[in-house]
Specification:
With 250 residues, this protein is an alpha/beta fold. It contains 12 helices and 8 strands. It has an 8-stranded parallel beta barrel, surrounded by 6 helices. Helix 2 runs parallel beside helix 12 and helix 9 packs across helix 10. The radius of gyration is 17 Å and the shape is globular. 43% of the residues are buried. The mean pLDDT is 96. It binds phosphoenolpyruvate. Phosphoenolpyruvate (PEP) binds next to strand 8.
Length: 250
């Protein structure tokens, strides 16, 4: 990695309880060590744990993020939903948007664009997920898919200092199958080109997500275009999460 700091974002998905928050103390300790202080370690638990998790880590170098939000920026009659304002009130600073598991549940580029705008309004930092399905990769449509997701998702957005991109090939999420380093850098460079061409940003940080674990972290961290990882399964176990952080920052 050429960057002086890296992101390690734990996506807990629909897992976790209070006891699990207490099991992350070793990560809090690590984040305080001189060697790791500069990196950004972020936990994204379910909504139900945001406030408790924030209270646990507020005096450390860890941050908290949500995994989604409603597209409406104001309060309102949306039973069962949580918007960016409510997320902000828990102490969370980050939010994952556009995750493929939500796209697969019918979330469109237009809705994601609305969610990004609503979250930016609350000054949340966005982790915007993009990535191709296996069938799209097989048809050589990866670039086309990334272009569509980035262009529509970021439509009419001018400020990029609060946006990070997470490139997550859908076929790699939770499968243990990873793109080869060359393919990965090619796709990350595609993202950079798309954003530069559309005058979005040259300097936007791009993370990789998809089956990152302690065994592959070192190799993945050699890809200089990548500024860190969005980690699902392996982030549920503090030992594995710490291993990933250590191996990618050595
Ligand atoms: C994810 O859900 O964003 C993810 C990368 O999951 P996993 O690490 O389990 O593949």
């Amino acid at each position: 990695m050429t960057n002086n700091y890296m992101y390690f974002i734990a996506n807990w998905k629909m897992h976790g309880n209070i006891a699990d928050i207490n099991k992350t103390s070793s990560v809090t300790k690590l984040s305080r060590l001189k060697k790791f202080k500069k990196h950004k370690i972020i936990y994204c638990p379910p909504y139900t744990l945001l406030k408790n998790f924030y209270n646990k880590v507020k005096n450390s170098n860890l941050s908290i993020g949500a995994q989604n939000c409603h597209s409406n920026s104001d309060y309102g009659a949306f039973t069962g939903s949580v918007n960016a304002k409510l997320i902000k009130s828990t102490g969370a600073k980050y939010i994952i948007l556009g995750h493929s598991e939500n796209r697969n549940n019918g979330e469109t580029d237009l809705t994601i664009n609305k969610k990004i705008k609503a979250a930016l309004k609350e000054n949340l930092k966005i982790i915007f997920c993009v990535g191709e399905q296996l069938s799209e990769k097989r048809k050589n449509n990866t670039h086309k898919v990334l272009k569509k997701q980035l262009t529509l998702g970021l439509k009419n957005i001018k400020k990029f200092n609060n946006i990070i991109i997470a490139y997550e090939p859908v076929w790699s999420i939770g499968t243990g199958v990873l793109p080869k380093n060359l393919e990965l850098s090619k796709n990350v460079n595609s993202i950079k080109k798309i954003l530069t061409k559309s005058k979005k940003s040259k300097n936007i940080k791009i993370l990789y997500g998809g089956s990152v674990n302690p065994k592959n972290a070192k190799e993945l961290s050699k890809i200089k275009e990548i500024s860190g990882f969005l980690i699902g399964g392996s982030s549920l176990n503090s030992k594995k999460f710490i291993d990933i952080i250590k191996k990618s920052t050595n």
